[in-house]
Amino acid sequence: MSNHRSFDRERYEDELHTDPIGYRSDEGSEFHRAVHGSGPREVGRSRAQVRQERAARKRKRRGRTIGLVLGLIVVVAAVGGGYAVFDRMTGGSGAPEDFAAGNAGPSVVVRVHPGDTAEQIGADAVDKGVVASTGAFMGAAVQSSSISSVQPGFYLLPSNVPATEAVDALVDPSARVGSVVISEGRQLHDSRDVNTDAVKKGIYTLLSEASCIDTTGSGTPTCISNQDFNAAGAAEDSSTLGVPEWASQRVSTVPDRDRQLEGLISAGSWDFDPTASPTEILRQLVSDSASTYESTGILTAGASSGLDPYQTLVAASLVERESLPQDFSKVARVIINRLAEPQKLEFDSTVNYALDTTEVATTDLDRATVTPWNTYAMEGLPATPIASPSVAAVEAVEAPADGDWLYFVTINTAGETLFTRSYDEHLANITKVEDGFLDSGR
Question: How does strand 407-410 pair with strand 417-420?
Fold first, then answer.
């Protein structure tokens, strides 16, 4: 970005007529001479005309100031109204209706949409009983230096309070509720690390934690349990959960209903209404995730990969769990090459998935156990995705790297991975694995 600032003629002319503190702006003043020089006045203009022009400039500057202040209360980037605030600032009569202090009621959830102005937020706050009028809310918002920092999302605000209290509550970061971050490779259910015994929280657990709200101020929040999310996600009719048409047929045949939404909630930052039902929350997340996946071209990528959209999602979840981003496109190519042979994928991540465990390597017994996901025990892709893939992983499957590789092995904790088509070379690559890296924790 250039630091060059273009010449703003209108702004320059305004500044010439600004009255700085400590100076008079009449023609004989020191300030006037410093700016205009000491030459003769313009001929043909009366003092009355000069005063009228000066008054017009002041009105113009005042209008700009009001416009600037109103602009500051825009939350994202939308242009909003502001009659109530404008009326107060310009000396209009009558204050907007406002609640008295000391009569706060139960807290309620107010949503801030992308692009909302303070006026629109105020209207929702009125509907929810937070404030008495939009005008009162805007009047308080325009005086808050933090209102412009409010982000789209859901906020827990006390009801029946003065507008200043409502705005103070809104700009408090602790008011935000229903906000959750789902990392790449996250699964629906909790999983346990075999080596450390640490539990990695699943999506349903994260949603449960993000759903907790205290509407009464008792200090004891109410939460939707992860069991409730799991029960909602296992519904027979997947259409109630926002499952897209391109995934519905495969989802209807998933062998374990508890896992039917696996991979259909994409990685990312999410906001949801914690007062909604588990089914409503999941429907929002699944529907919005489908839009995210579709934006990558998943509906048409099969022309080059040979995979339908749901298979692309499944393969992307394997890419996510088996490799680092720098190798996504190569691992995607290995998957497609093996499916074309056909040859078993033999990914340890698919063995771990059915066990709800995590480890770099698996045991002979685990690999021999037949499950709808264990790619050591069957050819083809697992029954469902095994995690939520990143957009990068999805795009890697849609456009994999060129190569004839059939094997790969990661040889150290830095993620260094070797690829080959030759099985003998693959065996030689395995000898390069650092001591203990691929040992099972059992």
Answer: antiparallel
> Tokens standing for 107?
């807290």
CA atoms within 13 A on the CB side of 297: 13
In a domain, 400, yes or no: no
* DSSP result, 303-326: HHH---HHHHHHHHHHHHHHS-GG
Give the Cα separation of 80 and 141 in Å (integer): 13
Please tell me the distance from the alpha carbon of residue 327 to that of residue 310, in angstroms, as a whole number. 22
pLDDT in tens, 386-432: 999 999 999 999 999 999 999 999 999 888 999 999 999 999 999 99
Residue with tokens 């009449």: 26
Chain mean position to CA 306: 31
pLDDT, residue 53, reads 58
Which residue bears the tokens 């109530």?
84
Domain holding 171, by residue range, is 105-177
What is the C-alpha to C-alpha distance for residues 120 and 113, in angstroms, rounded to an integer?
Answer: 9
Are 72 and 148 in contact by the 8 Å Cβ rule? The answer is yes
Percent of the chain with pLDDT over 70: 77
End-to-end CA distance of the chain: 56
CATH of the domain at 118: 3.30.1490.480
Q: Is residue 206 part of a domain?
A: no
Q: In this predicted structure, which of 84-93, 128-137, 363-372 has the lowest mean pLDDT?
A: 84-93
The CB density around residue 159, as the number of other CB atoms within 10 Å, is 19
Q: Is the pTM of this model over 0.85?
A: no
Other Cβ atoms less than 10 A from the Cβ of 354: the count is: 20
